[in-house]
Amino acid sequence: MLKRAPQWLMATCLLMSTALAATDSFVGDWKLVPSKCTYIDVMKVGSLGGNKYAFDFGGGPETITVDGTEQPALQGTMLSVTVEGSSTWRVVRKKDGKMLLSATWKRSPDGTQLVDSYTGFQPDGSSSTVNYAYKRTAAGSGFAGTWETVIPIDITVVNQIRPYEGDGLSFVRSPQDTRNLKFDGKDYPAQGGGVPPGATSSGRRLDGRTLEVTDKVNGKVTRTERRELSADLKTMTRTVHPVGQRQPSVFVYERQQ
Fold this sequence. Notes:
The protein is an all-beta fold. It has strands at 28-32, 39-47, 52-56, 61-65, 71-72, 78-85, 88-95, 98-107, 113-121, 127-138, 145-151, 158-164, 168-174, 177-181, 188-189, 199-207, 210-217, 220-229, 235-242, 249-255. It has two domains: 7-37 and 154-255, Calycin beta-barrel core domain (Lipocalin, Beta Barrel), CATH 2.40.128.20; 41-151, Lipocalin (Beta Barrel), CATH 2.40.128. The strands form two sheets. It has a ten-stranded antiparallel sheet, with no helix packed on it. A ten-stranded antiparallel sheet has the order 4-3-2-11-10-9-8-7-6-5, with no helix packed on it. A hairpin with a 3-residue loop joins strand 12 (158-164) and strand 13. The model is unreliable at 7-22 (pLDDT under 50).
């Protein structure tokens, strides 16, 4: 809910030494192929009693009282949730007084589906609205529960992977958001925008064409990620499986160089 488009879709740029490029098959430029991807968006709403709930839109839990008031949330934002009817909530997120998103949630009479009329706002004030249809995938009462939907990817970007300190690799989400990984199985403090306090990542190489990364927050595993190269080294498949999500999101890339 911070942003519908996942942060890793941002175009990347990194200038580093390529001395090890010839020894690591993952090093190179990789173009996303939207038609071969499956991105699953998950919203988790946990009831804490009364009108207090824990919302998790993928960036970690945010405890909010559902009373229509603006309350401190992740990444310096303000979040408000308003009851507009027995089966309708309105969710608004702002930062520095500026609207980031407005969403109207409508729950089906049987409680198994949720339609999210989501409006995202750009820095220039322009906006666009998309309707997402979620299905309940975990038990809950009212809006509480786990909701999942498949969101189509309609942009194509090129990601870069470069060597990092020996057998490590660098991935960049933006010029200011670099993810450096070592593959020794040890937990290292996680880097990058939107990383929650206590976040760590560990990596290991399963073989010459397969990497596995485990993300944790305060020692608790939050998701696993696997990157696999095809036999001809021209295709990379990235499988991301957050804990508690039934099916992983799958992203496919083609080598550009």
